[in-house]
Design goal:
By secondary structure, the chain is α+β, with helices and mostly antiparallel strands. The chain has a domain of 104 residues: Phosphorylase Kinase, domain 1 (2-Layer Sandwich). Helices cover 42% and strands 18% of the residues. It has ten helices and ten strands. A five-stranded antiparallel β-sheet has the order 1-2-3-5-4. The longest helix is centred in the last third of the chain and has 31 residues. It is globular. Bound molecules: adenosine-5'-diphosphate and magnesium ion (MG). The site of magnesium ion has 6 residues, from loops. Magnesium ion binds next to loops.
Length: 325
């Protein structure tokens, strides 16, 4: 960390002129690089900040929440880097003063990777064998996290979202759109710092629920939160999630080969975890359920945005257009 040169005055100006409904038409135009559970990832159309990615989080209620969240983020990244041995994208939390609409917005400003270097883009440029190798490289990174968790069980454990879109390949040859020779992986998705200490989750789940429509919060709390918050601590589920990405990426033909790769890994390098082999059918049903849940959730958020609009309330979140899954 620490090699990020954020222009805070410019970021403040950016936030003040942001149109969350049409970010590309903001005073300082923005391009959305990705949508997530907790943040929206933005690239600013401004020459001075072109090498940065801005992860916008508008859900904080008070300073205390921001301080806690920032502390947790810093600890999460430190443990991942220093104790687990992952490479994590360099980043800095920037906390802006309250906006006119009354929102407290925090940005995680990260070094930005070329769009083509992110896992979900690069898989479309690789052949089947190279994709298998990439997934194996992700499995090896994940193994480090779960070995750490096992060693610190009940004291300190980290959750990780192993999705292919959470890793960047480095070094990357932009002209060729491929890795520049042997590569390593850099983990990007640090805005959800899942960390349990003495078995207690340290990330405030309310932060997720804030961005949900108020008419759904009770339902999400009841049905959903427990599963979402715990699945990232389960090595086997994280692997299922990773392979299921290939359905989302319209590469379903890869799934059987990747299941085989994962099963070889589980029987070999990761045999000490004693996880049962994966089955293609279980990946498929997981994906179908997951895709359905997210599609429904997004539909409800869009309805909520309309309700805010109709009743003259400011809606602070940037929502994705309907996506194909
Ligand atoms: N540092 C970065 N550089 C370039 N693109 C990024 C960067 N961080 C995130 N993205 C893009 O935004 C997407 C979502 O970001 P991520 O941090 O995974 O958040 P979440 O999954 O919670 O939305 C990524 O899959 C990637 O495409
Ligand atoms: Mg992600």
């Amino acid at each position: 960390m620490g090699k990020i040169a954020v222009d805070i005055a410019l970021l403040q100006q950016f936030e003040a002129g942001l149109d969350p409904r049409r970010p590309e038409r903001s005073a300082i135009p923005a391009r959305v690089l990705g949508y997530g559970e907790i943040s929206t990832v933005i690239a600013m159309d401004h020459p001075a900040q072109a090498d940065l990615a801005f992860k916008r989080m508008p859900m904080f209620r008070d300073e205390e929440e921001i301080v806690q969240y920032t502390r947790l983020y810093e600890e999460y990244v430190r443990v991942l880097q220093e104790d687990v041995g992952l490479r994590v994208a360099a980043g800095e939390m920037v906390h802006l003063p309250r906006t006119h609409a009354g929102h407290l917005v925090v940005y995680l400003v990260q070094e930005r990777f070329p769009a083509g270097a992110i896992g979900n883009a690069i898989i479309h440029r690789l052949d089947a064998e190279e994709r298998r190798q990439l997934v194996l490289a992700v499995l090896r990174e994940l193994r480090k996290v779960f070995a750490f968790n096992r060693e610190h069980r009940g004291r300190l454990e980290l959750g990780i979202d192993g999705q292919i879109s959470n890793w960047a390949v480095q070094p990357f040859d932009e002209a060729a759109g491929r890795p520049a020779g042997p590569y390593h992986l850099v983990y990007l998705d640090t805005t959800t710092p899942l960390l349990t200490r003495e078995g207690v989750e340290q990330l405030n789940p309310e932060l997720f629920l804030r961005s949900a429509p108020s008419f759904l919060v009770w339902l999400l709390r009841l049905l959903f939160l427990q599963d979402v918050m715990t699945r990232y601590y389960d090595f086997r589920k994280v692997i299922i999630d990773l392979i299921a990405n290939f359905y989302k990426e319209q590469l379903p033909e890869m799934v059987p080969a990747l299941v085989e790769t994962a099963n070889e890994f589980l029987a070999g390098e990761a045999a000490d975890f004693q996880l049962s082999p994966l089955r293609v059918q279980e990946i498929r049903s997981y994906y179908q359920e997951d895709a359905w849940i997210w599609r429904l959730y997004l539909a409800f958020r869009t309805v909520d945005r309309e309700l805010h609009h109709l009743t003259g309330r400011h809606y602070p979140y940037i929502l994705p257009p309907a996506i194909r899954r």
